[in-house]
TrEMBL record:
Source species, domain of life: Eukaryota
Domain F-box: from-to ranges: 19-57
Lineage: Eukaryota, Viridiplantae, Streptophyta, Embryophyta, Tracheophyta
Listed Pfam families: F-box
Protein name, per record: F-box domain-containing protein
Length: 417
């Protein structure tokens, strides 16, 4: 009997403290080992103490992002133009990335990626289109009434962002301004804050119009003269490359001249425009401006079956320049996917990944093509899915929810008690 008591005492001595007694530092070290952001969200919301530990530590969020980049959940596909594909629905579709991570798959299943939040009236015609995705939000436009909406499919949070058609009428210059797609810029530090930036130009000038989530009012900035572009032969003053609209990286927006000789940039913090000359390697190439895994701005372009990467250092005078960093051949991986090497397209560059298509966006829809992802750090190529129809796509990447960045919503109220 005495021996049994000693065994029970030894067994009890080996027991550790209850999980509720763990320090914040130890909890964060455990959470750091979770496989994805979706797994972290589920674990952090298990109790108030864990949520508070994650939300209050910017250093932890930085470490977690370094180990687990924000995951791709899928692609929003713009609705086809009227009559382009008779059997396709006139409503944006979503193609999931089909992640192996169960928590990521659960996030897609639980989110509103069918955009039912926008389908208020049973008799209304669905006229919505996906314009851009940024930090977990989707910018959508209703072509019927011109309403712009910012929607987070994961949280179903919806914000109205103004009247697109009224804005168009306000920025025209002698009836000759050419409108470009608006773009959405969201804050990494405050998930409740966003900007919708709308760019317009005439034959020699550009201007920016901005609506902020804090003011809810459009601010129309003055026209700015830019270096003389080479105008198109069709006499519509289209000197901006309009295939994919504006490009975006960090707080900057970019527009390429149609001849691809110059790049126009807008610093959305200062609302100042600048123009730089593009390297020769980008002429007649498909490219996009984006960010590497560590947040540096880069240009990624296709060259036959190779991918080139340009970085943006500054010279001694502070002038922006673009320098070739490396060119990586991918012929061994792409030979069986790409029929014409000249048709490999760079669709988007996001969070250290490049998204590619193996044929142009507007081609015979009976000919399927592949969507691919390429990691800029490892240069590992992955096949995502095949497309049998034509439209522009926008990668949707899961972002930190606002409940895990500071105190927002009901947590702020309850924590104050």
């Amino acid at each position: 009997m005495a021996g049994g008591r000693r065994r029970r005492r030894r067994r009890k001595a080996r027991w550790g403290p209850p999980i509720s007694k763990l320090s914040n530092d130890l909890v964060l070290e455990i959470l750091l080992r979770l496989p994805s952001l979706a797994s972290l969200v589920r674990a952090a919301l298990a109790c108030r103490a864990w949520r508070r530990a994650v939300a209050s530590s910017a250093a932890f969020r930085g470490r977690f992002r370094a180990l687990h980049p924000p995951p791709l959940l899928g692609f929003f596909i713009e609705a086809p133009a009227s009559g382009q594909i008779p059997n396709a629905p006139a409503f944006p579709a979503f193609a999931p990335a089909r992640p192996r991570d169960r928590d990521l798959a659960a996030a897609v299943r639980c989110g509103d990626f069918f955009l039912t939040t926008l389908q208020d009236g049973p008799g209304e015609i669905p006229c919505w289109d996906a314009i851009y995705c940024s930090r977990g939000y989707v910018l959508l436009l209703n072509w019927d009434d011109g309403m712009l909406v910012v929607l987070n499919p994961l949280t179903r949070r919806r914000e109205n962002a103004g009247d697109f058609y009224s804005l168009n009428a306000s920025v025209e210059s002698r009836g000759r301004a050419i409108r470009l797609y608006p773009r959405l810029l969201c804050s990494a530090g405050d998930p409740t804050s966003f900007l919708v930036v709308f760019l317009a130009h005439d034959e020699s000038r550009v201007r920016a119009v901005v609506i902020s989530s804090s003011t809810r009012e459009w601010r129309i900035h003055p026209w700015v003269k830019v270096p003389a572009p080479v105008l198109s032969d069709d006499d519509n003053h289209q000197w901006i490359q309009n295939a994919g609209g504006a490009m975006q990286a960090n707080r900057f927006m970019y527009l390429a001249y149609e001849d691809q000789m110059h790049l126009l940039s807008l610093d959305t913090a200062t609302m100042k425009f600048s123009v730089v000359e593009l390297p020769q390697c980008l002429r007649n190439s498909s490219f996009d401006v984006g960010e590497t895994k560590d947040g540096a701005t880069c240009i990624v372009y296709s060259d036959q079956l190779s991918i080139g990467i340009l970085m943006q250092p500054r010279d001694g005078d502070g002038v922006e320049i673009w320098l070739l960093d490396r060119v990586v051949p991918l012929g061994s991986e792409l030979n069986d996917l790409v029929e014409n090497p000249d048709e490999l397209l760079v669709l988007a560059v996001r969070e250290g990944y490049v998204y590619l298509a193996t044929s142009p966006m507007y081609h015979d829809p009976r000919t399927p093509c592949w969507f691919l992802s390429l990691c800029l750090e490892t240069m590992k190529l992955e096949r995502l899915f095949r497309r049998t129809f034509d439209s522009i796509v926008h990668p949707y990447i899961m972002e930190w929810p606002r409940c895990l960045v500071g105190n927002y919503g009901k947590f702020a109220l309850e924590d104050a008690i």
